[in-house]
Amino acid sequence: MNRLPDDGPLRVLVARAVFADIIDPLRAVAEVETTPDDAISPPKVLRQRLADKHGAFITGSERIDAALLDACPDLRVISTMTVGVDHIDLAACAERGIIVTHSPDVLTETTADFGFALLLAAARQIGDAERYLRAGKWSKWSVDLFAGADVHGSTLGIVGMGRIGQAIARRAALGFGMRVLYHNRTRLPPQIEAECRAAYRDLPRLLRESDHVLLAMPYSPQAHHLIGAQQIALMRPGATLVNIARGGVVDEAALAAALHSGHLGAAGLDVFEGEPQVHPALLDAPRCVLTPHIASSSMPTRRAMAQLAVDNLMAVLQGRPPLTPVTA
Q: Which helix or strand (DSSP H or E) is residue 157 part of?
């Protein structure tokens, strides 16, 4: 198990540009190397920068694997500003006694807001309509001009009913009078189902019964391409698919084909399998709203995420338990 030194300075890397006033308190407990130009370090450079560090503040841009950890014998704690930890090899960290922390809870409501906004934008074809107007193509009002799908009173299927999924369910049921279905690895207790006004379905049945499907589950190898051509074929003609989970959950080529064929009515995507690259077939797909992984991007929430990551780092470096450790 890696141990903090009994004497000598502690050293921390902050791998991306982060709010300076939130990072500054770290300097009271460690020597801090920052990244003011916000450059994403390639794997070799990241290994070099972390080689003598005891702690790391990272984002989803930094991949932490066994090879990197082998080159960083002093590393004691990795604090990611994200909720998801699919960019970190948790087993490799555990083998080396490295504590991993993340930033849950503080982004739940903001992300739920955005998920619902993306659903509305996709179903009502707001992206295509705005581009049409900006291109100077709007010459008259028409009865069926960008006539999308209703959201109020329709059926929403949520895949992944954690904190964010539950927050979206409450918005849907209470704010928009929607019938809410959900699928989860573990069925929720009856009390939470009642609070969310949500009914459990297995995945095929949820896909068949929903007018709109929203993905909000964490990524895992088992969830890779959970929504592929076969699953999309189960969805109702004209249905909407929204992904605020992880890009790898959706087979993007199959999704683009379903949009081009007209089987799906719309899609809204905030995450992509190869981000920041986007599958070319999605870029020209009709009725598709694409955003650059910004579901948690309000200023208060991003500051809260950074603050929690710093608080976790400081706790471990000062010999205290972390606030929000990742448990494998």
A: strand 155-159
Q: How high is the pLDDT of residue 56?
A: 98
pLDDT tens sequence across 93-131: 999 999 999 999 999 999 999 999 999 999 999 999 999
Domain boundaries, the chain: 11-106+300-317, 108-290
Average of per-residue pLDDT across 37-60: 96
Tens digits of residue pLDDT in 294-322: 999 999 999 999 999 999 999 999 999 99
Which residues are catalytically annotated? 246, 275, 293
Among 306, 303, 267, 301, residue whose Cα is nearest residue 287: 267
Angle, to 10 degrees, between the axis of helix 108-123 and the axis of helix 163-170?
A: 60
At which residue do the structure tokens 């297995």 appear? 202
Mean residue pLDDT of the chain comes to 96
How far apart are the C-alpha atoms of 79 and 90, rounded to whole Å?
12
Q: Say whether domain 11-106+300-317 belongs to CATH 2.40.30.170.
A: no
**For residues 65 and 73, is the Cβ–Cβ distance under 8 A?**
no
CA distances from 87 to 60, 70, 82, 268 (A): 6, 17, 10, 23
For residue 248, what are the β-bridge partners?
none
β-pair type (31-33, 55-58)? unpaired
pLDDT tens digits for range 284-293: 999 999 999 9
Whats the size of the chain, residue-wise? 328
Note if the bond before 276 is cis, omega within 30 degrees: yes
CATH superfamily of 108-290: NAD(P)-binding Rossmann-like Domain (3.40.50.720)
How distant is the alpha carbon of residue 167 from its chain centre? 15
**pLDDT recorded at residue 327:** 82
Token pair listed for 58: 């990272």
